[in-house]
UniProtKB/TrEMBL annotation:
<dbReference type="InterPro" id="IPR004101">
    <property type="entry name" value="Mur_ligase_C"/>
</dbReference>
<keyword id="KW-0436">Ligase</keyword>
<dbReference type="InterPro" id="IPR036615">
    <property type="entry name" value="Mur_ligase_C_dom_sf"/>
</dbReference>
<keyword id="KW-0067">ATP-binding</keyword>
<dbReference type="GO" id="GO:0046656">
    <property type="term" value="P:folic acid biosynthetic process"/>
</dbReference>
<dbReference type="InterPro" id="IPR001645">
    <property type="entry name" value="Folylpolyglutamate_synth"/>
</dbReference>
<dbReference type="GO" id="GO:0046872">
    <property type="term" value="F:metal ion binding"/>
</dbReference>
<keyword id="KW-0547">Nucleotide-binding</keyword>
<keyword id="KW-0460">Magnesium</keyword>
<dbReference type="GO" id="GO:0005737">
    <property type="term" value="C:cytoplasm"/>
</dbReference>
<feature type="domain" description="Mur ligase central">
    <location>
        <begin position="53"/>
        <end position="284"/>
    </location>
</feature>
<comment type="pathway">
    <text>Cofactor biosynthesis; tetrahydrofolylpolyglutamate biosynthesis.</text>
</comment>
<comment type="similarity">
    <text>Belongs to the folylpolyglutamate synthase family.</text>
</comment>
<dbReference type="InterPro" id="IPR013221">
    <property type="entry name" value="Mur_ligase_cen"/>
</dbReference>
<dbReference type="InterPro" id="IPR036565">
    <property type="entry name" value="Mur-like_cat_sf"/>
</dbReference>
<comment type="function">
    <text>Functions in two distinct reactions of the de novo folate biosynthetic pathway. Catalyzes the addition of a glutamate residue to dihydropteroate (7,8-dihydropteroate or H2Pte) to form dihydrofolate (7,8-dihydrofolate monoglutamate or H2Pte-Glu). Also catalyzes successive additions of L-glutamate to tetrahydrofolate or 10-formyltetrahydrofolate or 5,10-methylenetetrahydrofolate, leading to folylpolyglutamate derivatives.</text>
</comment>
<keyword id="KW-0479">Metal-binding</keyword>
Length: 443
């Protein structure tokens, strides 16, 4: 997939700024710079009403589902998510594809001029970061595209995330996990408090199912203190059906007092966690826009998909699943879905994690599931710790091979899976999924 020339040029400029995704650092989160540039640019963040989505897992899926429902209801929609897998424009798009090239090129010129003039005047309050600029770029693209609605996925945390300059019509908070503890806090309650930083006065918030009960109290207390309503998906949704089809789809039926009838649809996004995400997206829509009908919700949910979220592709005669799972809970969901869909097929794994992930706990999930495991690094550029991953797999008593040469590792994993007529799971990192696709010409 080739990026538009203007987008490639903008990316090159963007890469000259600090990028947390590639090189995590402390003390690089604040909102001063975002407020400064939003004012300087004429507040593009307020050009259209929006939804704001935070959480540890599932926030990209919920964002895409909401955007697809809005589009099905007849609105033009801007969708801001991260990371991208094959093309930078995946981050700033419509639910069904990309904007016209002119939207991207004109917004890039506008932002680059604003930054360069502010630098010349020495007015920028702090050092600019890659994600701040990407977020400002999304605001400008959506304003130029004159979208009716926008959906913004939080990058990291919530309280100090660059997206937290928007004033949404509704917020969603997806499941919270113990993640990024060096930046968000060393307990799940502290992390939840950071996510709760997107909650604002008189703006309703929908909170998904949480595995840790204390997290509910964090959100409830924050909402009460701020003065807004907090709705929990668990209290509002009853599932009537979750089942898989023979063509790798998921039948879903759920009901709620907010709906005039049960919502019944077939999802392209797979796994029990996606049933929860769909329910949250539907509740969010009915809360913010009660006039949107159940048919639009059903069609929007059915249309939603994201790359590397249990994405099933065919390579020659074999089935390949690309999934960006990189935490214990998300990998558990991926494994459950893989076994449910392919209970009797041989299963092979191409696996890599970023250096800051809990490889010891994740490796233990693989016991008894895979006929072959290939360890490598998470793509061409992302930093991993392959020695630590190797030690974790040995401790878990797994049979595996280790290949530091990324391209060789990908080709070897595909060859072994094809020879065994196996399903190949490529998982552990979005960067792994993206670069493996490039190696095998699947993007």
């Amino acid at each position: 997939m080739e990026n538009a020339p203007a987008t490639r040029s903008f990316e090159k400029w963007l890469d000259s700024f600090i990028n947390f995704e590639k090189l995590p650092q402390k003390n690089m989160f604040w909102l001063d710079t975002m407020h400064f540039f939003c004012e300087r640019l004429g507040h593009p963040e307020a050009s259209s009403p929006c939804f704001h989505i935070a959480g540890s897992k599932g926030k990209g899926s919920v964002s895409k589902m909401i955007a697809c429902i809005l589009q099905e209801a007849g609105f033009s929609v801007g969708l801001y998510t991260s990371p991208h897998v094959s093309d930078f424009r995946e981050r700033i798009a419509t639910p069904g594809g990309f904007f016209d090239d002119a939207v991207y090129s004109d917004a890039a010129a506008e932002l680059m001029h604003a930054v360069q003039s502010a630098e010349h005047e020495k007015k920028i309050p702090r050092t600019l970061t890659w994600f701040e600029l990407a977020t400002l770029y999304a605001f400008l693209c959506f304003r130029r595209a004159r979208t009716d609605w926008n959906v913004f996925e939080v990058g990291l945390g919530g309280r100090l995330d660059a997206t937290n300059v928007v004033t949404p019509k509704l917020c969603c908070i997806t499941p919270i996990e113990l993640e990024h503890t060096e930046y968000l806090g060393d307990t799940i309650e502290k992390i939840a408090a950071e996510k709760a930083g997107i909650i604002k006065p008189r703006i309703p918030v929908i909170v998904s199912h949480q595995t840790t009960h204390s997290v509910y109290r964090v959100f409830q207390k924050t909402a009460q203190n701020i003065g807004t309503s907090c709705t929990f998906v668990d209290d509002m949704i009853r599932f009537r059906e979750i089942s898989y089809t023979n063509d790798y789809r998921m039948n879903l039926c759920f009901e709620s007092p907010l709906f005039s009838r049960p919502v019944q649809t077939t999802l392209r996004m797979l796994g029990s966690v996606q049933a929860q995400n769909a329910a949250q997206a539907a509740l969010a829509m009915k809360t913010a826009l009660p006039a949107v009908g159940e048919a639009a919700i059903e069609k929007g949910l059915a249309n939603a998909s994201l790359p590397a979220r249990f994405e099933i592709l065919t390579y020659r005669s074999m089935t390949v699943v690309f999934d960006g799972a990189h935490t214990v809970a998300s990998m558990e969901n991926t494994m459950q879905t893989l076994i449910a869909l392919f209970p009797s097929r041989p299963r092979h794994l191409l696996f890599a994690l970023a250096a800051d992930k809990n490889v010891e706990a994740i490796a233990g999930l693989f016991r008894g599931t895979f006929h072959s495991i290939t360890l490598t690094k998470p793509g061409f550029t992302k930093h991993g710790d392959i020695e630590r991953a190797e030690a974790a797999c040995k401790s878990a008593h797994l049979s595996f091979t280790c290949e530091i040469d990324f391209e060789k590792a990908v080709q070897s994993a595909f060859e072994k899976a094809e020879a065994a007529s196996a399903v190949l799971l490529v998982s552990g990192s979005f960067y792994l999924a993206a670069d493996a696709k490039r190696v095998m010409n699947l993007c």
